[in-house]
Every structure is written in structure tokens, then in C-alpha cells.
Design goal:
single chain, eleven-stranded mixed β-sheet, about 280 residues, 11 strands
Length: about 280
């Protein structure tokens, strides 16, 4: 899929699911409250060439640059290079990682998901479990009937553009990952697993199967598995599958409201401490 086709897919899903808008001929997506980046995360833009609508990006925006010279930040991602992807196999992993992969493949049936409708409740429980375990991303209450309708809408639009892989234990979905191929890069765009079944190593089996599939795809040159995390255990899990930290040059524009908001937050915290005393 080309970058243009990917952006068209996101637009087709609708603004109700993704908070996106177009400005200066670029489609922007909200990644934090009042903060935006291009829908195509790898899209490079020169400084001053484009920015999101000011009333939406009250706290700022960021985008990648073509070179490091004008960057004021870096965007750290976990990448599996073309060279490492082409040579990827079970022997590429450490002995402990190989054992976990084999356990995951033995206890789970790994396959693509062609229809998510009968799996919606399993997916919902997995997402809630992940939210409760990690305390990151959407809160547990987000995954309700409205979420089910939105995820079905997304699936109906991009089912031919995005692959969904599931780990099934005794017939029940216990983990899943979404992948999408854009301009030769396979993005693992979402991953979730149920806390009660982590001992069955479904994530190990899933990522191993996905990487094997990527290696066999001529159009796939490398794989991206999310941003470098502030959770060391998450980075360690990805690195054991040969992913490496890669820093991309970024320009980030921050609003003057950010230091004001931070100072206000500190004031509120201090005020609460005084009240408690």
C-alpha cells in the first residue's frame, strides 16, 4: 500500500474513530490532547511547510524531517532492518526466546482473523485486561458497545488493507496483533493480550509468525514495532526478536500553554498537599 492509499484508508474509516483533519495539504491525526502529527508517521515535512489547524493543535504538533540538521527532537522507534528480516529464523533468537516461541506455538493456534464479529467480546475482554495491566492507552471503560460499533466500522473499511493475527487457546482468542504494510514497511500497529493467559506465551508465537510471514513477502522490506517505550520490559520483549532502536529526526512545535499547564498542575498538586495537612 502506498502512503496515499494508507491515508485514504484512515480517512474512509471516519473522523468518529480517529480525530483527523486536513490542513496545508497534509492530513493530521491527534496523538495527545491538542497535539497532532501527520497520519503517515513516516511522512517528512520541511519546517514551516505545513502545520495542523491552530485551534485544534493548541499544545503543538510534530513531524519528521528529511535530515538531522534542523531537528529539535528525535523519534525513537523499534525497527527490524531488511537485512535482519531476510535472515530471520528461530535460530536468530536466544535459547530462552526460542523456548517461549515453541511453547506459544504448541499451546496456541496462530492464524489470521478474517471476521472479527464473532470475536468482539473476546477482543473487548483482552483490551480491558491490557488496560488494567499496563495503565497505558485507553482506560478500561472505553471498551464498550460504542467501541464495538467503531471497530466493526474500521474492519469493514480496511479489511483488505490490514491484517489481524490472533492467538487462539482451546478455541478462544487470547491475544491479537494488527499489521499494515505501507511503502515497504510493515507496521505492527496494535498488540493486546489477556493477562490471564500470558503464561501461554501467545505474544511470542504471534510476533514470530508475523515476522516469518513478513520475510516471505517480497514487498516487505522492514518491520516497525511501535515507539521506544518508557517501559523497559516492553522494549526488552521486542528486542529479543531482533528489533533495534532507531532515532528519526523530528521537528516539534510546542505551544506557550504547555509550561503554563505544567505550572498549573504543580500548583494544584501542592495545594492538595496543603489541604491534606
Amino acid at each position: 500500500m502506498t502512503s496515499k492509499e494508507y491515508i485514504e484508508q484512515v480517512i474512509a474509516i471516519g473522523h468518529g474513530f480517529y480525530d483527523i483533519h486536513q490542513n496545508d495539504d497534509i492530513w493530521w491525526i491527534k496523538v495527545a490532547p491538542f497535539f497532532y502529527r501527520p497520519v503517515d508517521v513516516m511522512q517528512t515535512i520541511e519546517i514551516g511547510q505545513a502545520k495542523p489547524k491552530p485551534h485544534k493543535a493548541l499544545l503543538g504538533y510534530c513531524h519528521m524531517l528529511t535530515n538531522n540538521n534542523n531537528a529539535n527532537k528525535t523519534w525513537s522507534m523499534l525497527f527490524l532492518s531488511e537485512l535482519k528480516l531476510n535472515s530471520f529464523e528461530i535460530k536468530s533468537l536466544s535459547s530462552s526466546a526460542r523456548a517461549q516461541v515453541r511453547k506459544g506455538l504448541r499451546l496456541n493456534d496462530i492464524k489470521k482473523i478474517d471476521n472479527i464479529e464473532p470475536l468482539l467480546e473476546d477482543m473487548r475482554e483482552i483490551c480491558i485486561s491490557k488496560a488494567q495491566r499496563t495503565q497505558h492507552g485507553r482506560p478500561p471503560e472505553y471498551y464498550n458497545d460504542k467501541w464495538k460499533k467503531e471497530i466493526m466500522k474500521e474492519f469493514s473499511v480496511d479489511k483488505n488493507a490490514k491484517d489481524r493475527w490472533g492467538a487462539f487457546h482451546q478455541g478462544s482468542l487470547i491475544a491479537f496483533m494488527n499489521t499494515v504494510l505501507v511503502e515497504g514497511t510493515m507496521f505492527i500497529s496494535f498488540a493486546a493480550s489477556h493477562t490471564d493467559h500470558l503464561d501461554k506465551c501467545p505474544n511470542d508465537a504471534l510476533i514470530f509468525t508475523i515476522l516469518n510471514n513478513c520475510r516471505e513477502m517480497k514487498e516487505c522490506k522492514n518491520v516497525q514495532f511501535g515507539d521506544w517505550s518508557d517501559v523497559p520490559s516492553l522494549n526488552k520483549f521486542k528486542q529479543k526478536f531482533c528489533f533495534e532502536k532507531v532515532d528519526f529526526p523530528v521537528y516539534a512545535k510546542y505551544s506557550i500553554f504547555i509550561p503554563i499547564a505544567k505550572n498549573m498542575q504543580k500548583f494544584i498538586q501542592q495545594f492538595r498537599k496543603i489541604i491534606k495537612k
